[in-house]
Give the backbone structure.
Amino acid sequence: MEEKYETLKIQQESPNSGVFNLIINRPSVSNALGLNFFSEFPKVLNALDQNPTVAVIVLSGSGNHFCGGIDLKSLAAMADDNSGDQGRTSERLRRKIKFLQDAITAMERCRKPVIAAIHGACLGLGINIVTACDIRYCTKDAIFSVKEVDLAITADLGTLQRLPGIVGFGKAMELSLTGRRFSGDEAKELGLVSRVFGSREELKEGVRTIAEGIGGKPPLAVVGTKAVLIRSRDVNVEQGLDYVATWNSSMLLSEDLTEASSAQKQKRKPTFAKL
Ligand SMILES: CC/C=C\C=C\CC(=O)SCCNC(=O)CCNC(=O)[C@H](O)C(C)(C)COP(=O)(O)OP(=O)(O)OC[C@H]1O[C@@H](n2cnc3c(N)ncnc32)[C@H](O)[C@@H]1OP(=O)(O)O
């Protein structure tokens, strides 16, 4: 956790808080992100996941924007690799894309909830990132765009897979084919974000309160709810029910269960062992 990263900063909300802020940290280029982000991001998420002090992660951007998208200066270099025959070149590029995808999916692999706090621009890669977060909030002046189509890219890091489940198929198709910009208020109307805050300060404070609320809940039930919901999104109801039955057969009988109901009866704040 002490390690320094080129594209990210980690800050514990306050001493003893289970809320950790993970901040995209390239403000001079509007938090545009290149290859080093994709190497650092899964490592940091894994470290946060393994750290028992961490209950909830809040992902935000430093400076004026959440994320201005892929770093356009490194985009050409990422795709420019044509040594060897066509088949080998394509296979290498496929592996590279899978590596980039895997970095974004690291948020879903992380057992702890990841909340996106979005201000300013959230474009292209930014949408791939926030759609893999568990909950999203934004400021009124946030600007979103599924921008890839304008750069002659079929979005390939998760937006086209996750956005339809969040806003509905038709809306996802419209936003992805037009690449049009939309506001924080429209993001709320679409269901992309759960709530819009008037300013960046209100966003920070509001998200901190929500994150601390989740962080105070029984940890096994929080990680179970995230894992089961993500699984249920990807399978049918019968398979989802089977998964939660297996999950709870091994995770339901915990000290958290007794503590949660005792605290409720005794009208006191519960305390749970960390995960
Ligand atoms: C395998 C492929 C995987 C993923 C592909 C993803 C596709 C995408 O992400 S598509 C989206 C790409 N992004 C863009 O097209 C955004 C372009 N930028 C903008 O629209 C604006 O810069 C802005 C982000 C809305 C910010 O506007 P503003 O606040 O007015 O500041 P600026 O003066 O415009 O920018 C400040 C500074 O940031 C640099 N910058 C912004 N975006 C990028 C970017 N995507 N890549 C590189 N650099 C970026 C901008 O150049 C400025 O830097 P200077 O040094 O001052 O020029």
